[in-house]
Amino acid sequence: MSQYRKCAVRGCQDSVSVRHRFPNPTKFMYVCVQWVDCIHFTVEENYGNNRLRKDAVPSLNLPDQQISNATDEILGKPSTSASYQQLGEVCSVTTSQPGNLDVTTVEPIEEHYSEASSSRTESGLLHKLYVTRETQLSPKAKKLYKIASHLSRANRRLRCTRRLIRSTRSTREVLNEALQHLDSTVATFIKSQITLAGSKSQGRRYSLEDKLMGLILHKQSGRGYRQIFE
After folding, report:
1. Where are the domains of the chain?
2. How far apart are CA 139 and CA 27, in angstroms?
3. CA distances from 123 to 79, 116, 119, 152, 222 (A)
4. CB within 10 Å: which end of the chain, N or C, has fewer?
5. pTM for the structure as a whole
6. Strand, helix or coil for residue 46
7. Where in this chain does the record put each THAP-type domain (predicted)?
8. Cα(107)–Cα(7) distance, rounded to whole angstroms?
């Protein structure tokens, strides 16, 4: 006589259905995704990434006795203010008739969890491979994942650098804007001094205009007058 494992849900006495080995998510991920169909949980209790909400309670395909036991156990536990608030936000229980309980999920709470989960996984590389952690990948896939992650980080850094370059102005533009209200001779002299400030004396190069201006300034100085008189 063939032996069947009991269902993981407490109270489920199904011993007729054939038990199959769960597909390996590393080798047959597409089959694994199709298999993850929680027959004891509603769609609102599933995050969409093969995970259930932390306060999810089995409510589908259960005997009547199992539903009453699960709800009585939850309501019988002492709760603090935080847990009471959380229970009140998640579900509302009506006990108009004994043994007949209706669990209603509040839509705004479910939307909040689904949006937070999708924002974490939609843009990631692991979500495209239908996995949630790097440890679920094969050794070859891990190497490719590391290379792809490195390229993605480098691309983000290059985009930030490109935006920074576009936002900053060159030194020449800032200098021209600062000297536009000065006299042309003074502006040329200051620009020449700032441009050649970091160069060595042997590596400095002057234009013809700079040389003529230097002679004019030298002749207008007191030392120039003394040299002329001598």
Report:
1. 1-124, 171-229
2. 12
3. 38, 12, 7, 11, 73
4. N
5. 0.26
6. strand
7. 5-67
8. 30
Q: What is the DSSP string of 189-205?
A: HHHHHHHTTTS-GGG--
In tens, the pLDDT along 181-195 reads 888 777 877 887 777
Place of tokens 């990434």: 49
Contact 26, 136 (CB under 8 A): yes
**Res. 158: pLDDT tops 60:** yes
Q: What is the pLDDT of residues 66-99, one digit of tens each?
A: 445 555 555 555 544 444 444 444 444 444 444 4
Structure tokens at 122: 């939609």
User: Count of alpha carbons within 13 Å of 201, Cβ hemisphere only?
Assistant: 0
Question: How many CB atoms are closer than 10 A to CB 33?
Answer: 13
Structure tokens at 113: 């969890």
Measured CA to CA, the distance from residue 172 to residue 179 in angstroms comes to: 11
